[in-house]
Predict the structure.
Amino acid sequence: MFGLGDPRVAYAHCDIPCGIYDPAQARIEAESCYKIIEKYQASTDDVFRQRCVKIKEERAELTKHHLDVLWHDYFKPEHLEKFPKLHDTFWKAAKQASKVKQTVELADAKKLLELIDEIDAAWRATDGPKNTRLAKTASA
Amino acid sequence: MEPALRHGDRLIHAGVAYRTGDIVVARDPRDPDRWVVKRVASLDPGRVSLASDLEAHETLVVSPDAIVGRALLRYRPLRRFALL
């Protein structure tokens, strides 16, 4: 007997998660967006401003990527029990990264940094620094 | 899985018998909520080796219980409609 179930995605490639996660990756890209917007606003050079927009869009896209990796690969259902608003925060952060991609408003970039900091707090509270980063080697 | 499967292809699968060389859908043993689609490379008691048609991708060994079904038909895009 045959029945039709809901369509599902099946992946042809096996992911090999490296297990290294840190919201700092997303924050650095978001900080770049913030500083680029500052430079954009301080400049009257059209060519420079065009370059600023291009680079900012790339950085904002990278921010979204790093947020997605954290969301999908690091955080687990048990973390969600501890931080029930986590999905909402990630959703807002991804939306905010899209907004930063579209606009040149410092307030938008600042809001993105704040949302990433909320995610960072959850990562720290779930022992992320101990479990998903390597300890620094002692300098010679 | 190219050229047999490309990203975004739509398939129909069913829980029917499979053998070496068939394309199957299986639960990823590291994340049972994730499904993978691969070709059966070998069958041994209690274990099924699944490989990609592209050598660059790793082989996955799963329990027979993890096999969801055999891919029977590729129905989208329509120009690539084919029995598998």
Notes: The first strand of chain A starts at residue 10 and ends at 11. The helical segments of chain A are 24-42, 46-74, 77-82, 86-102, 106-125, 128-131. The first helix of chain A runs from residue 24 to 42. Residues 58 and 98 of chain A are 11 Å apart (CA to CA).
